[in-house]
Amino acid sequence: MSFIFKYVAALIFSLLVFASGASAAPKAGDRIVEPVTNMSFVYIPAGKFLMGSPETEADRYADEQQHEVEIKKGFWMGQYEVTFDQYDAFTKEVGRDKARDLSNWGRGNRPVIYIKWFYAKAFADWLSKKSGHKYRLPTEAEWEYAARAGTTTAFSFGKHVGGMNNHSFFKKLLDSGKDSSAEDAERAMIDQHAWYGQNAGQKTHPVGEKKPNPWGLYDIHGNVWEWTCSLYSEDYSSSESCVENEKSNAKRSVRGGSWQFYAKGMRSADRRFFAPVMRLPYIGFRLVREN
Predict the structure, then answer these.
(1) Which of 41, 111, 185, 209 has the maximal Cβ count within 10 Å?
(2) pLDDT tens for residues 203-220?
(3) Would 284 be classed as within a structural domain?
(4) Which letter does DSSP use for residue 38 in this model?
């Protein structure tokens, strides 16, 4: 066999291997880095899950009624919340004002805050145009599905025992004779996975400092609440789709809890809402990239 024939055969084989690898479907936990902003994304596979919480879950709300949801298409979820550095790159290029940090906690790798829903949408649209891929906010259903990562407990890292809403001096005095071992165990577990009212020191923290959920998402519980693209509806009627009228001021769903709130607000099923014009120090966002 001639040298040239061997070379051509080897080249064809290499191309075939590359082509098969390039076309292979992504699997849960696969990771990509978006080159414009260096954001990292994790692949979330299609599947079914029970959205909401069981009636036995501590501190649940009436708008968390359980129902089965099917995520029909896999998607890529931001591994971290969008940071000041990433958002500042957008504002610099398009000539917008930088996001505020009125509390002077620092910028850089901390989650961007004081972001209207409309600003988060504009960032996603800018990145879509720059990269050639479709980026957007997650639907409420996609967010909970990704946060749960196949788990059924209150948090992706374990259950919630409740009773952690008020840690004032008077509550501690009243509870002084009560067995607090369950609360202590939950608090120790939360401290490994999330920034919230009891450990955050009343401020945000750089993304990725705590343990991730089983699918590799960091700060999905705590640090800042995250905008979704869904309208809030008590009966979940808008949870599986993005808002149709993007200019509407109807309330949008936010998820995940934050640095200034109780543990119950970080539960996977917990639902909150804000008007899309609100700019607050405890709301940020993360993006989805469509597969």
Answers:
(1) 111
(2) 999 999 999 999 999 999
(3) yes
(4) T
